Fold this protein.
Amino acid sequence: MFGKAIYNEFIKIAAKPRSYLGLAAITVLVGVILFAMKIDGLTYIGFITAGFEQSLLFEGDILNGNLMGFIVLQMLIIHVPLLIALVTGDLISGEAAMGSLRMLATRPLSRTQILLSKFVAGGLYTFLILLWLGVMALGVSNLMFGPGDLMVLNSDGLVVLLQDDVLWRFLSGFGIAYLSLLTIATLSITLSCFSDNSIGPIVATMAIIMLFTLIGTLDVPVFDNVRPFLFTTHMAAWRSFFEDPVDYAAIRNSAIILVAHIVVLLGIATYHFKRKDILS
Amino acid sequence: MSDPIVEVRQLTKAYGKFQALHEVNFEVHRGDVFGFLGPNGAGKSTTIRILLSLISADSGTLSLFGMPLATHRREILQKIGCIVEKPDFYKYLSARRNLEIFGRVSGADTSKRNIDAMLAFVGLEGRANDKLGGFSHGMRQRLGLAQALLHQPELIVLDEPTTGLDPQGIIDIRELILQLSREQGKTIILSSHLLSEIELIANRMVIINKGRSLAEGSVKELLNAEELVVTFELNDGAAAVALLQQRPEVVLREQHDNRLTLQINREEVPELNQWLQSQGLRVYAIESKRKLEDYFLKLVNN
């Protein structure tokens, strides 16, 4: 029955027009970035490499598909949470507002099964959004610009990664990026359990991301003890795969904190949803 | 009388300081069309929501099919089909998709053939692929009934199923309910604030007001609990009044010319009619004034 519930949830997501908003937004945004880079990418690269040109000699095609993929990811990974929350924040509260949650809750499914089926479907949707971002960022970039070595500017300096050494880093980076987006999805589903209107959890999710990001970037000692435990601090963990050598300890730490967030948020959601009086 | 399949004992529920239910009791037997009657805000929907585990009771016991709801929720819900208030479906999906979604998690046969047959049963043949955005309230109510029946439940719970329907829609839904009861032997719990609806459909009922169950029994028993008030229209009112002196069991309550309003036992009405005619009077009309409505109002107002 649980498998059928998941299938149902995915049918519902697939039938909602808003579910395609994320895919369309990613397509348009990536299209705009790649178009701009195709026309004027060398000027953009010139700004980045200007500081190194006196000490380094750049050879070959720096403006290649791998660099474009990296730039696109860096620009868009902060916007994707909104696209995710738009769908996952509506999964329970949207049904409560519509009244269909009442009908669903009278079927022979446990409340935990209802919640988990929505979580799994939301997680699958998040994966598809990220997959589409990956296809657009890497696939289309490589088609338009061709492959090449990846030059990444990190806080430690310029890192050049050979073409053959790049794909696994992107795939691993997508893995940890998925965890951070799944945390956002879980947060919005949890907030969705506490609301009977669909817009509240979406706005609340974005407000929490903004607040935590602010705390993370505000360089004041009072937040020093909190900062390492905020999920927003670990949303950029995917970039660690583009360092040389890769800091696996930091990545593992980020993964643990993100998974802990998912487990705790899901626990809160389950506890509340099981006891919730469905009055709508 | 068969064993009860629904037993509600001392059910209590409060929303904050508002006491919605005070120790509500009733039982429903297999094959009953059970009326759950009360004015708006009486606690009917709260009771039904507890029955379907949408909300939890503060105290009391609730068992269905001999199993406590608290510990056998899924087995119990498997055997129930319901419409709570109004059926709220996914408007962006077609009627077929909606039935598939609810049927799939109810263990129903969601094949095209079965869904088409169910849609035909509720009078929605040919509308399977239409999205619900274009459905009228009556059509959604019919689809709600199809959803409630698709998995062949033993017990059907219908909360105010005719609310908002036009007269023809009310008749159609009523006919469907009676058909389910007579032809398929389903047990049906029907909540309504409409006395006429309960009177026409139900065989047993409970009357609830301000969260308390006031009376429970067969509709026939409850109707006979009070005598009827019947108005006779005759050709000679004065002669009839004189004749009725011989019938002490009949109480004359009012007389307007040839219209006599009498208090009489329900069972004696046909015999009195015959007797008056045998005395040479002509009876043009007999109008029963005292029905469930008076009984209900008396209970509620007390």
Summary: Chain B touches chain A at residues 49, 52-56, 73-75, 77-78, 80, 82, 84-93, 97, 101-102, 104-107, 147 (CB under 8 Å).
